Amino acid sequence: MRPGPVAARDSAARIGAHAKALPLRRHVHAYERCIQTLDAPEFHLLDDQGGLLSCATVRTVVVLSGGPPPQAALELPPGAKVVTANGGAELARQLDLQVDLAVGDFDSVSKDRLSHVLAFERHPEAKDATDLELAMQAALRLGAERVLLIGSDGGRLDHLFGGLQLLASPSFTGVQVDAQLGPSLVHVIRHDRTIAGRQGELVSLFAMHGDALGVSTQGLRYPLEAETLQPGSSRGVSNVFEAPLARVTLVEGVLLAVRPDPHRGGD
Q1: Rounded distance, CA 267 to CA 60, Å?
Q2: What is the pLDDT of residues 80-111, one digit of tens each?
Q3: C-alpha span between 86 and 239 (Å, rounded)
Q4: Can you tell me the distance from the alpha carbon of 250 to that of 208, in angstroms, rounded to the nearest whole number?
Q5: How far is CA 96 from the centre of its chain?
Q6: CA-CA distance, 77 to 31, in Å (whole number)?
Q7: What is the distance between the terminal CA atoms of the chain, rounded to a whole angstrom?
Q8: How far apart are CA 69 and CA 154, in angstroms?
């Protein structure tokens, strides 16, 4: 099916997992299918019953937060903007990516590593927000409909925890948010989202910033039916894809769907 001229919505996301150890790169050829970034997921519009209506694309801003280059293939759609958070500029250099905007105090980045940057947004070292939060806010100002964060799952634990909290922040309610942190994939779910994975793959659901009310799932081994997931509860941990597609809906709140290793099943 060829892309149709329709607007994407959060419930339209289908996230695939079939990446190989290839470098991050821009695709400049015409897409025969609606390929979006993050293990080449396809984005579709779904009706209220989850039926496929048509293909759609969204305006994507990729935020690089540093860490080693990703092991999985990450295909940037045509027109995607690239924003780096401080040390993410070094990751962009390693991946030979042109950076549209570099954000941060640049305390850990040498000048010669910023030669591929088109614009800068410099902040003092002493500030009230992390470089990552500032970079994601910049992504909104660039008109993002989807923010894709690429970073590490290691390093400072406080930075990792703060970053996960940030992904589900109310500031990004109006955009779709995904992340690849090391080998793991993270998807923010508000109201309704359909995720594509592999049968046997692990996925955990975490309530963020308050209770997630009326959570229901389809396509997972341990179904939830209009349940409440609370922050600090392990109720949603270690579920398993039973089908290529899993749908998660909720009445109120926000969830993180964490796929710890999309390339390895849970069985």
Answers
A1: 34
A2: 889 988 878 888 888 888 888 888 877 766 66
A3: 35
A4: 13
A5: 21
A6: 9
A7: 33
A8: 13
Structure tokens at 216: 């229901």
* 3-state SS assignment for residue 265: strand
Closest CA to 94 of 17, 177, 150, 161: 150
> Which stretches of the chain are DSSP H helices?
88-94, 131-141, 157-167
Residues 113-129 have pLDDT tens digits of 676 777 877 787 778 88
Query: Up-side HSE of residue 101: CA atoms within 13 Å toward CB?
Result: 21
Q: Which pair of structure tokens corresponds to residue 219?
A: 């396509």
Query: Residue 179 pairs with which residues in a beta bridge?
Result: 149, 186
Residue among 149, 134, 143 nearest 59 (CA) = 143
Instruction: Please answer whether residues 253 and 210 qualify as being in contact, where contact means their C-beta atoms are separated by less than 8 angstroms.
Output: yes
Q: Which amino acid is at 265?
A: G
Share of the chain above pLDDT 70, in %: 71
Give CA–CA dist 163/169, Å, rounded.
10
| Alpha-carbon separation of residue 191 from 97, 112, 173, 258 (angstroms) | 34, 44, 11, 17
- One-letter amino acid of 208: M
What pLDDT, on a 0 to 100 scale, did the predictor assign at position 64? Answer: 86
